[in-house]
């Protein structure tokens, strides 16, 4: 394993691949770690989605939420006049599987920076057209994650950040992460969390350990099994080897039983259950991530 790891590190240097840090861990500790840039918290983009999904799983295990709960029932005051009937069919399950039916990539990072949907993301999304039957088709959209995060907040009676701190972050020993909020002060369920590599990959270690951390069961194993199983097929016209199904805000990976939390530009934690390992990487916003992906694919195949 050490030989393969440092072969990857050498390849990053030789080919000047855009990588900031890489590490391999088991359920209890980091086994190998290398930083190409100073170690500091960075935006992990859509890797955040997997934390939001974990919060949903915890809330469900507490009996405060259900996958069949409906978005419109949670936010009746945000519905437009004469709402489209299909709005009443959207469930938490649909949001977690990127199959809300809005069938469009709403509230992505560039949209939020441009002020799209501000100041009220909920009213904005509930005024969008539902283009296909909810649950029928996968379309990757940060808006679905944002809406799911708002449902969690409503169910547990606190901000998503505070809930995750109480249920997860403080137990993982990583403090209270900096996190992008929407214009109304709600944490973005689909992005904008800042973490160091060693903290970001703890989610993978936790899932690898079936939700247990230092003797405490933080996430129910049943949720983990469901969240990282293929819940919906993902279109793959480009024949990308890493596009092979989606769970509840986790991507499936092309290694036996594997899955990943995946953020823009290469903020990735991959869990390899059959090898008992988690592999995490952080990358800059510039560079050729396709080359990085090929090097990572070789690393994870040969570990």
Enumerate the strands of the largest sheet in spatial order, edge to edge or round the barrel.
2-1-10-9-8-7
Task: Give the biggest beta sheet.
Answer: 6 strands, antiparallel
Q: Measure the end-to-end span.
A: 5 Å
Report the β-strand fraction as a percent range: 5-15%
Share of residues in helices: 25-40%
| Number of DSSP strand runs | 10
Uncertain stretches: none
Class by SSE composition: alpha+beta
- Rg, Å, rounded: 19 Å
Describe this structure in words.
- This protein is an alpha+beta fold.
- Helix content is 36%, strand content 13%.
- The protein has 12 helices and 10 strands.
- The protein has helices spanning 2-15, 48-61, 71-74, 92-96, 109-114, 121-126, 142-156, 160-172, 197-200, 202-208, 221-227, 289-302, and strands at 21-25, 30-35, 42-43, 194-195, 212-213, 216-217, 251-252, 259-263, 267-272, 277-282.
- The strands form 3 sheets. It has a 6-stranded antiparallel beta sheet with strand order 2-1-10-9-8-7, sandwiched between helices. Strands 3-4 form a two-stranded antiparallel sheet. The protein has a two-stranded antiparallel sheet with strand order 5-6.
- Helix 1 runs antiparallel to helix 12 and helix 2 crosses helix 8 (160-172).
